[in-house]
Amino acid sequence: MQLEGKTAFVTGSTSGIGLGIATALAKQGCAVALNARKATKETDELAAKLSRETNAKVIYVPADMSVAGEIHAAVAECEKQFGKLDIVVNNAGIQHVEPIHTFPNEMWELVLSTNLTAAFHTTKAALPGMKARKWGRIINIASAHGLVASPFKSAYVAAKHGMVGLTKCTALEIAEEGITCNAICPGYVWTPLVEKQIPDQMKAHSMSKEDVIKKVMLYNQPTKKFATVEEMGGLAVFLSSDLAASITGTAIPVDGGWVAH
Asked: Per the structure, how many domains does the chain have?
């Protein structure tokens, strides 16, 4: 229970990587705030279920991560409910796959605001409390696409490269404050977001589902298998612990060797 007494806000955490990280943190004794755009019966039930399974305090805090005011209000609610906010995991993200020349302008703006600008606002809102207590952990979920590019994902790749840059700037600014900031850069992790990409990729590449998985998604992933949300959660727990106090400003690939090419 190396995170007992700590508190965390994990954005975009009702499924996929976010939920995997929230679960891992809760299992280590951390109180956790789950997040998605709206509060529903299902989101409240999910928080209650995770609390029962881990014996940790788990709440649900709704916020549209493309809206700055809602993000700042969500961080304030976490601080109110928990009394403090020690860990922020910037995980919320969306994807759109399309060639640049037909990429919708509004989708570009939405991907950038959700995948990158939201992390700026959560960090900005959480830092004053962390600095006052001289302890904090900011974990940005970037991507292998924050280090390398692929076609048809211009907004996503731009946002994730920006996330890595934001991570480095944040780490340098808070290096003497007892706060660390790191980016996790997953390759393909089997999540609902990845599964939803398959039809768009099939259309963009004129391929079958099986060929998209083998020849597009896992082509550059030498292990030829999807990573798991549990692996992401394990790394997030480590980066949140005191054992990782000297790790900051890094972009850590968890990609089956993708960026080793």
From this structure: 1
> Is residue 223 a part of any domain in this protein?
no
**pTM for the whole structure:** 0.94
Alpha carbons 21 and 229: distance in angstroms, whole number? 7
For residues 215-230, give the mean pLDDT: 93
Say which of 60, 156, 188, 219 is annotated catalytic: 156
Closest C-alpha to 224, from 201, 184, 257, 197:
257
Q: 29 lies in a domain?
A: yes
113, 66 contact by CB (below 8 A):
yes
Q: How far apart are alpha carbons 24 and 13 in whole angstroms?
A: 12
Domain, as residue range, for 181:
7-187+228-260
User: 92-129, pLDDT tens digit by residue?
Assistant: 999 998 999 999 999 999 999 999 999 999 999 999 99
The answer to whether position 88 is within a domain reads yes
Domain CATH for 36: 3.40.50.720
Q: Has 60 been annotated as catalytic? A: no
Contact by Cβ (8 Å): 137, 90: no
